[in-house]
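Lecture notes, unit on protein representations.

Consider one protein chain, 247 amino acids long.
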Amino acid sequence: MPQGLLVAPADRVRPRLWRRALPILVAILAGCEAAPKVRMDSMRSDYDAGRYEQAHEEATDLALTASGPARDEAQYLAGLSAYRLGDLYDAELRLASAARSDDPDMAAHAKASLGLVLLDRDRPFEAERLFREAASDLEGEDRARAIRFAERAAHHARTAGISRTEAGAFTLQVGAFRERRRAQRAADDASRRAADAGLATARIVERAGRGASLYLVHVGTFGTRREAAAARGRLGRLDYIVASVPN
């Protein structure tokens, strides 16, 4: 089963991801599309074998159609895969979604993994907060690791002289797609919702990846996370992710 392992990095050696064994999903929630077990097993097998591109593609596809625990699992695995591929921006978006899971264990492991991503993106204060939140719902060695990395993040912020002042702009991330036609469909749907809510038309942002482009669908630009979250509420789509606009 796919696992991520958090280890203490030496200086700038990239840490591996948090240990997380993804449980087999067998329960079908009323009114929700269940993730076929064979698809989940395929994603896990690809991830364990180091086929991160395939795992990411499968998990991303499933996240678009599934709901509830299945969607959380898919977003989590897509985030792990994106991290392994070096795509920190997509990893942040996916893991942030999984971190909102109703399952405390899933949410805690996603927060810990997200903390590692934010450390790599030089955002230690946010990383420290996530590690401490994760530690409150973890046990044993996982909890100890989260606390150690929270302290490491705090130390990095102090030595680097980083301010706690939140800078930059924020947007609502509708989705991230490997195919532009799928991004366009998502942008068209988001634009209709945005028009009803008095927001700007959705836009597609192309980012270069390993071997292929990634198409991000964004709605709006906001000065604070709170403003972005309020706009998300007006859109009625709590699955949209509040994300920082990349520099």
